[in-house]
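Q: Could you write out the predicted structure for this multi-component system? I'm mainly interested in how the pieces pack against one another.
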Amino acid sequence: MPAGTLYRGREGMWSWVAHRVTGVLIFFFLFAHVLDTALVRVSPEAYDQTIDIYKNPFVNLLEYGLVAAILFHALNGLRIIAVDFWEKGPRYQKHMLWTVLAVWLILMAASLPRILEHTIKTIFGS
Amino acid sequence: MTAVVEETAPGKGHGATAAERDHTLITITLRIRRFNPETDAEPYWQDFKVEADPTERILTAMMKIKAEQDGSLTFRRSCAHGICGSDAMRINGRNRLACKTLVKDLDMAKPITVEAIKGLKLEKDLVVDMDPFMQAYKDVMPFLITSGNEPTRERLQSPEDRERFDDTTKCILCAACTTSCPVFWSDGQYFGPAAIVNAHRFIFDSRDEGAEERLEILNEKEGVWRCRTTFNCTEACPRGIEVTKAIQEVKRALIFRRV
């Protein structure tokens, strides 16, 4: 049965969608991460070669995306725990979401220069 | 009071002439998702233009369409005053009661979409099969369970004890919450918010002795643990019940075994 329009959920629903999406993204990262780290058992050279592939601005940008996904997933995870365990959690879920997003934004801004340092220097010169 | 109104403003209110009333009327478009199982393979959208006062309800506009434009338009409504819970539908993408949604509270310039609630089998236009919903309700045993001899007088309860479950007594079983739940859309076996709300109403009633049984039912795979706290149910409830909070209280009662 075709679903018709998309359900117009509010903060609660979209934070849940974002939590799922970031969760899946983190899973795929871990999948690749376990594989590339396991290469060290094949040979240290194979490991070094693979890691060298990662040393470019595109992967650096992906790293920043990974930080974004993990930070949101972790902070929103705390919010969900509070919703389930704190008596007043359900009533303050929106406030907690705004807090999560504010902290996320601060941490993202703070980590930007450090993580993208090399890429910025490579592209724009030092 | 009525007499005063008539005296000071003879041309307004109930005494308004047809011309004065028409002045406030605007033309709105209802984009209704139609489906006739006998002729249609799939649901489709149909636009209806209808004259409505901004202070009127969507239900009024729909009854006007049914009376004046297309008698085959099918939807449920009974009391039309937000108590029977018959006319839950998805209006502009959100579950609401058509009889409690005013035209002026929606974007009147754009077509207003009206669809059947999601997750239950569509039978015709806006009518869905409510049986699975009612079965989940029955499964949580929504009645007083006691033991021992029946008292010769009322079962008394302190105001504080009554207050404990006051919020969940307000449910009208309209299914707006259950059919707003993403978990229910993908897993029709989930008890759903409405059944949990009605279980909550008895679990936390000091006069009731069936809490353990109900908690066990909701402790099963398709019980409260399916809840992902998206709060769609709380947003959708036309009675303002804090549905997610009630579900959370049942979860906590299960974890800490304290009612």
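A: Regarding packing and overall arrangement: The first strand of chain B starts at residue 26 and ends at 34.
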